[in-house]
C-alpha cells in the first residue's frame, strides 16, 4: 500500500509548480531548525510582498511554509523517497496563465540573490522545466531522467550539477546542494543556458503591469462591495464561472446570495488571461432570474454581459462552500477522489471491498487534514460567504462612485490579424533561430537529447487541445497537399505546394455547409437499386458479378422495404414542414418535405438548447458570419 499513500501526496492537477528553498542549516535539532527557518521565512515574505503587492494571481499565489528535516522528497520519475534537509516549501497551481509560473521563477531568483546562501529548486509536472527553455544548449548527457535533482538557482544563476560518470543518473539532493556550495564554478550552467532563462524572465517585475486589463462591469451591489474590499477575488470567480458544470448552472439560475435586482457599475482589474476567458465564455442568462441585458448594439451591453458572468462566478463559489464535516456533499472531495482514481490509487480493487474501503477512508482522512492546501478547497467560497454576511457598505456611496469610474482599457489585443500572428511566430520560431540551430549542429554543439525535454510538455499541452483538433493534427502530412474545391463539380482537384501559412477559404466552407443543408432528391432513377441506369457501366466489373455483392444489394433492398413499412405506421412524417404548390399527379394527398425549413428549424432548436454555450449550431453558423441575437426568441416565423 506504500504506492497508494504516495498518490495521496501527489494527486493534483497538472498545472502545478513546486518549489523548495534550502538555506545553509547545520544543526540537526528540530527546534533550532524551526527557529532558523522562521527567521528566513520572515525575510522571504517581505521580499515576496515587495514584488507581488499589486499582482493578480490567476489561480494560486506564491506561498512558502517551513519544513524541518523530518520531511522527505518523493521523486516524480521513479517514485523513490529521500530525506531532505530543512527548507521552505511551496506548491501553486497556475491554471491557464503560464505567466504565473515564470513569475514564480523570477521570485525564486530574487530570493536567492537577496538572502545569502539560499538555493532554490523548482519543477512542475514536466520535471525540470527550466531546461526545456534551454533545450538547444544542453550537454550531451542531459535528458529528463539524468537531470532529476540536478537543476537549481543560486545567487540568481542557474546551476546544473554535472554527472561524474556515465553510470550515475539520479543524484541525492543533499549531495547536489553540497557540490553547489563547495564548488559553484563547476556547477554553474553555460552562458547559453543562463541567457535562455534570463530572456524568459526579462522585463519582470515591470511587465506584470502589462498583463492587466481594467473593465467596467454591472454587478449586484454586494459583489461591488466585496471586490472593492478584496479585488483579487475576481480571479476565482472567473475561474468558477468558466469551469462551471450543470450543478453550478442551477445555482446561477437561483442567484440566492446575489440577486440581480439592485446592481451598480464598478471598475475591476482582470489579468488579460482572465478577461479573455470571461469574454469568450458564452452564457445566456435566464430572464426569469431577473437578468435584463440590453441589446447587443448598446454601449452598456459589454458591462452588463461581463457583470452577469462575474456575479454567477461568485454565486457558484458560495454554492460550493460546504461545512468541513459534510465531505460527501463537498464538491472538492469528489474532484480529489476522481484524481485519485485517474492515478490508479485503488489499484483495480473491487469497489466496497475491505481493501477498497480502507484506501477510501485513508483518502478521506488525508483530504480533511490537507483540504486547505489543495486547489479543491471550498475555502474561497466560505470567505465570500462570510464577507456577504458581515461586510458593511453603503449602497448610495457605491452608486455615487459610478460617476467617477476610470476609463476601460482598450481590448483590441483580443483580436489578432493573420499578419500579426505570422510576425509573432516568426519572432519566436522564425528563420533566424533555425539558422542558429543549424550552425550549432554543424559545429557539433547541438545535442538531440535536449529535445527529449520537450516531449512531456507537448503531450500535456495537447491534452488541453480539443480532441477534434488533435485528430486533425494526426492526419498524414504530404509534401504536396491536394486542395479539394467545394463546387458543383466535386471531382476537380488542384495541386498546391505546401507553405507555412494557414489558408482558410470561407466561401468553400460555406459551400460545404450548404451542400449538407441542401438535400436534393434526384428526379432520375439513379438511387433505384433495381435500375440499370448507373450500374450498367460497371456490369463488366468482376466485383459486380460477384455473388457476395449481389447478396449485399438484395439485403439492402430488404432493409429499405422493411424501414418503409415501419415508418408508414408512425406519425413521424407529420413533424416535418411540407411544401405547398408542387404537383404530384400520380400520388394523391402527397406533400413533399421542405428540407430547407426543417433543417433550419432543427438548427435553431439546437441553438436554443445550447443556452448561449458553444455547440454544433453556433460552431456551424459562426464561421459563415451568422450570429443569432441571444435576446431573440429564436423562433422560425
Defining traits:
637 residues, alpha+beta, six-stranded antiparallel beta sheet, 25 helices, globular
What does this protein look like?
By secondary structure, the protein is of the alpha+beta class. Among the domains are: 2-204, no CATH class; 208-321 and 378-413, no CATH class; 480-517, no CATH class. It is 44% helix and 10% strand. It has helices spanning 2-10, 30-52, 98-114, 129-133, 173-182, 184-187, 191-201, 221-229, 234-242, 246-254, 272-280, 301-320, 331-342, 354-370, 379-390, 395-401, 418-429, 431-442, 454-463, 467-473, 506-517, 542-545, 547-568, 595-609, 616-621; strands spanning 16-22, 65-67, 72-74, 81-83, 87-93, 119-124, 151-154, 157-160, 212-220, 263-271, 480-484, 493-497. Helix 2 packs across helix 3 (98-114), helix 9 crosses helix 12 and helix 17 runs parallel beside helix 18 (431-442). The longest helix has 23 residues, at 30-52. The chain is globular.
Amino acid at each position: 500500500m506504500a504506492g497508494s499513500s504516495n498518490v495521496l501526496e501527489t494527486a493534483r492537477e497538472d498545472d502545478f509548480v513546486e518549489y523548495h528553498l534550502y538555506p545553509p542549516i547545520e544543526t540537526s535539532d528540530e527546534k533550532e531548525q524551526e527557529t532558523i527557518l522562521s527567521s528566513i521565512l520572515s525575510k522571504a515574505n517581505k521580499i515576496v510582498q515587495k514584488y507581488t503587492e499589486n499582482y493578480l494571481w490567476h489561480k494560486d499565489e506564491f506561498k512558502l511554509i517551513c519544513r524541518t528535516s523530518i520531511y522527505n522528497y518523493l521523486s516524480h520519475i521513479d517514485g523513490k523517497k529521500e530525506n531532505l534537509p530543512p527548507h521552505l516549501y511551496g506548491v501553486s497551481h497556475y491554471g491557464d496563465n503560464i505567466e504565473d509560473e515564470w513569475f514564480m521563477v523570477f521570485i525564486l531568483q530574487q530570493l536567492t540573490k537577496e538572502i545569502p546562501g539560499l538555493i532554490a529548486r523548482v519543477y512542475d509536472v514536466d520535471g525540470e522545466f527550466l531546461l526545456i527553455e534551454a533545450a538547444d544548449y544542453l550537454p550531451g548527457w542531459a535528458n529528463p531522467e539524468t537531470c532529476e535533482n540536478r537543476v537549481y538557482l543560486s545567487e540568481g544563476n542557474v546551476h546544473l550539477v554535472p554527472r561524474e560518470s556515465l553510470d550515475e543518473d539520479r543524484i541525492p539532493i543533499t549531495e547536489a546542494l553540497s557540490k553547489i556550495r563547495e564548488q559553484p564554478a563547476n556547477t554553474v550552467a553555460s552562458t547559453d543556458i543562463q541567457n535562455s532563462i534570463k530572456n524568459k524572465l526579462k522585463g519582470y517585475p515591470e511587465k506584470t503591469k502589462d498583463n492587466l486589463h481594467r473593465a467596467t462591469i454591472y454587478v449586484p451591489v454586494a459583489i461591488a462591495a466585496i471586490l472593492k474590499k478584496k479585488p483579487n477575488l475576481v480571479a476565482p470567480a472567473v475561474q468558477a464561472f468558466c469551469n462551471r458544470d450543470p450543478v453550478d448552472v442551477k445555482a446561477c439560475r437561483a442567484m440566492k446570495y446575489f440577486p440581480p435586482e439592485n446592481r451598480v457599475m464598478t471598475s475591476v482589474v482582470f489579468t488579460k488571461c482572465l478577461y479573455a476567458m470571461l469574454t469568450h465564455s458564452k452564457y445566456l442568462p435566464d430572464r426569469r432570474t431577473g437578468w435584463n441585458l440590453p441589446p447587443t448594439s448598446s454601449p452598456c451591453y459589454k458591462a452588463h454581459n461581463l457583470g452577469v458572468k462575474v456575479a454567477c462566478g461568485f454565486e457558484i463559489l458560495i454554492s460550493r462552500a460546504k461545512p468541513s464535516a459534510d465531505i460527501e456533499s463537498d464538491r472538492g472531495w469528489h474532484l480529489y477522489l476522481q484524481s485519485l482514481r485517474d492515478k490508479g490509487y485503488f489499484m483495480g480493487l473491487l469497489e466496497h471491498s475491505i481493501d477498497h474501503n480502507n484506501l477510501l477512508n485513508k483518502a478521506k482522512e488525508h483530504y480533511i487534514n490537507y483540504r486547505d492546501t489543495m486547489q479543491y478547497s471550498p475555502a474561497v467560497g466560505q470567505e465570500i460567504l462570510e464577507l456577504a454576511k458581515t461586510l458593511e457598505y453603503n449602497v448610495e456611496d457605491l452608486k455615487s462612485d459610478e460617476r467617477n469610474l476610470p476609463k476601460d482599457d482598450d481590448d483590441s489585443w483580443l483580436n489578432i490579424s493573420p499578419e500579426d500572428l505570422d510576425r509573432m511566430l516568426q519572432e519566436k520560431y522564425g528563420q533566424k533561430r533555425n539558422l542558429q540551430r543549424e550552425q550549432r549542429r554543424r559545429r557539433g554543439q547541438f545535442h538531440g537529447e535536449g529535445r527529449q525535454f520537450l516531449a512531456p510538455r507537448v503531450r500535456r499541452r495537447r491534452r488541453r487541445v480539443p480532441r477534434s483538433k488533435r485528430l486533425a493534427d494526426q492526419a498524414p502530412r504530404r509534401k504536396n497537399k491536394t486542395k479539394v474545391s467545394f463546387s458543383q463539380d466535386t471531382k476537380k482537384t488542384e495541386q498546391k505546394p505546401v507553405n507555412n501559412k494557414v489558408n482558410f477559404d470561407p466561401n468553400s466552407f460555406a459551400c460545404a455547409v450548404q451542400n449538407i443543408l441542401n438535400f436534393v432528391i434526384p428526379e432520375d432513377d439513379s438511387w433505384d437499386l433495381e435500375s440499370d441506369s448507373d450500374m450498367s457501366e460497371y456490369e463488366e466489373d468482376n466485383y459486380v458479378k460477384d455473388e457476395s455483392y449481389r447478396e449485399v444489394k438484395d439485403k439492402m433492398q430488404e432493409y429499405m422495404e422493411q424501414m418503409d413499412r415501419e415508418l408508414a405506421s408512425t406519425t413521424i412524417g407529420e413533424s416535418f414542414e411540407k411544401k405547398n404548390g408542387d404537383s404530384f399527379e400520380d400520388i394523391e394527398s402527397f406533400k413533399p418535405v421542405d428540407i430547407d425549413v426543417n433543417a433550419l428549424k432543427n438548427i435553431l432548436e439546437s441553438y436554443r438548447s445550447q443556452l448561449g454555450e458553444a455547440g454544433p449550431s453556433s460552431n456551424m453558423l459562426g464561421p459563415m458570419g451568422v450570429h443569432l441575437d441571444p435576446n431573440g426568441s429564436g423562433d422560425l416565423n
